[in-house]
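Subject: for your reference before the review

Hello V.,

The reviewers asked for a structural picture of the protein, and I figured it would be easier to keep everything in one thread rather than splitting it across files. Below is the amino acid sequence we used in the manuscript, unchanged from the supplementary table.
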Amino acid sequence: MKIYTIVLILKLILQNASLTVGKYQKREENFIIESNKKIRLVNLTSVGRMSETQCANVCLQNSDNCCEITCASSTRECKLGQSGCCHTIFDDMSGSNLLHTRRKYGGYTKILFVSNGGVLGEWADEEYCTKGHYAIGYKMKIEGPHETDNTELNAIEIICGSRGSDRCGDKASSGQQHWGDWTGEALCPANTFLTSFSLQVQKNDESRDNTAANHVKFKCRNFKDSGSDFDLSYPPGYGLYGSYGEWSDACPVNSAICGIKTKIHPDKGFGIDDTALNDVQFFCCD
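And here is what came back from the structure prediction:
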């Protein structure tokens, strides 16, 4: 097991000035962590001494700044990550216990959908970014062309990040089929998030080999700005079959895509036409 040790407290900032978090006072600390001779700087906020339950409650109350928290067993000191990312580098720190809250969105502000989705399959359960995180990019699972029964798009995975532009390591993908390989990632420009999408779909025709959804593309936009947006697609930007439909609605200002729900055609076995992913919906969160 790797042991991460605090080798140096660089400095104490705002020692006298503080911000109120509930009934607790925050002070910012910078820690340098040594891991296999690599030095990493991590900003934490100490919110005082309390029980693990109290520490978890503080994290829940400040979800934009925290998804996992460190509570030092020996000192009962509660420390929250500021960026919204989970600082798992403290996971094995001597004398500490990392609480994994694994919080999900309890609700959403809007559902995004398109009118040209495939007609086959069943809707899988929705999946979300960790609370306080939003989609900053995506990747797809695509089966390349071959001689019999092509399925093309089999899954979509959204990549999540914080509003502080930190990539946090969490992701969401909903249901998927097992054919094909994952593409590389397509990421929004800095400080922007996925806010609308368009789906390329081959219409169902019983006289041919059907593939349903082939490709997906998005628009990226600043969280607080309804103005300029940017098209985002993974090269070459389209699949082999079907065509793109109209763009979905966009997430409202002060929100972005945070979750996904896919409609998946199950594996029908040898000799029966499979189409894998047929349709998708995305959820906006504020």
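For the response letter, the relevant points are probably these. Residues 1-24, 31-42, 83-103 have pLDDT under 50 and may be disordered. The first helix runs from residue 52 to 61.

Happy to draft the paragraph if you're swamped.

O.
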